[in-house]
């Protein structure tokens, strides 16, 4: 554990809290992508299968359970819980996530896993890394279609992007300070890709804060 990883984890937890507040207090899912959160649920379930096989620490186990349960609850609220589900706009959330994100991630994971010998747990872990790198895409598409971004939703995306950026700093720090740190090129490439997807959002978020105006994304 180091400061960058702890800050990344807390940023991730804060993003979940902000989204839960957005749904529970405002009781409105407009501008929120169900498909992105379905993808994140798949990511966490496939990545944290080691909950049943390996114990690292109480902190580690609690964070894994937190990510799975809260993401599952978010999916449940948007799908089934009134009045939240009635405000979810399916017409704006149409990204074909299974076809264009889940399937390619599964194919890449299968190819990658063949290099090191076939292992189901390792295959699912690599799949989750690939999928997480692009899971935010349906949400970014929804926000671009809406144009104007509600404050809590904007803060949620900002915290999610900050979480990934801080994890990159964590990797750099560990590579410098841990002589036997195990490097994983798939994690690095996917982490950089995931952070890059937030770059445009960060730019417009910063511009809106600097000007004091409403936060909006170009809709063209």
From TrEMBL:
The chain crosses the membrane at residues 100-118, 124-143, 155-173, 185-206. It is found in: Endoplasmic reticulum membrane. One of its GO terms (molecular function) is ER retention sequence binding. Its main location: endoplasmic reticulum. It holds the Pfam family ER_lumen_recept. Signal peptide: none annotated. InterPro entries: ER_ret_rcpt (IPR000133). GO terms for biological process: protein retention in ER lumen; protein transport; vesicle-mediated transport. Keywords: Endoplasmic reticulum, ER-Golgi transport, Membrane, Protein transport, Receptor, Transmembrane, Transmembrane helix, Transport. GO terms for cellular component: endoplasmic reticulum membrane. It is a multi-pass membrane protein. Belongs to the ERD2 family. PANTHER family: ER LUMEN PROTEIN RETAINING RECEPTOR. This is ER lumen protein-retaining receptor.
């Amino acid at each position: 554990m180091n400061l960058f990883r702890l800050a990344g984890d807390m940023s991730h937890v804060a993003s979940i809290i902000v989204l839960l507040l957005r749904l529970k207090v405002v009781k409105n899912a407009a501008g929120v992508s169900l498909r992105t959160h379905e993808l994140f649920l798949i990511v966490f379930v496939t990545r944290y299968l080691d909950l049943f096989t390996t114990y690292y620490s109480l902190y580690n186990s609690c964070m894994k359970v937190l990510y799975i349960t809260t993401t599952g609850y978010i999916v449940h609220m948007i799908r089934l819980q009134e009045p939240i589900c009635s405000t979810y706009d399916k017409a704006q959330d149409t990204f074909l996530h299974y076809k264009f994100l889940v399937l390619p991630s599964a194919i890449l994971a299968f190819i990658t896993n063949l290099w090191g010998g076939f292992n189901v747990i390792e295959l699912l872990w690599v799949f989750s890394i690939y999928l997480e790198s692009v899971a935010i895409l349906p949400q970014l598409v929804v926000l671009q279609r809406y144009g104007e971004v509600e404050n809590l939703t904007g803060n949620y995306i900002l915290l999610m992007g900050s979480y990934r950026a801080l994890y990159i700093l964590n990797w750099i720090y560990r590579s410098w300070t841990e002589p036997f740190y195990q490097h994983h090129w798939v994690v690095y490439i996917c982490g950089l890709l995931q952070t890059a997807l937030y770059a445009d959002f960060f730019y417009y978020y910063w511009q809106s804060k600097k000007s004091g105006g409403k936060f909006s994304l170009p809709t063209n």
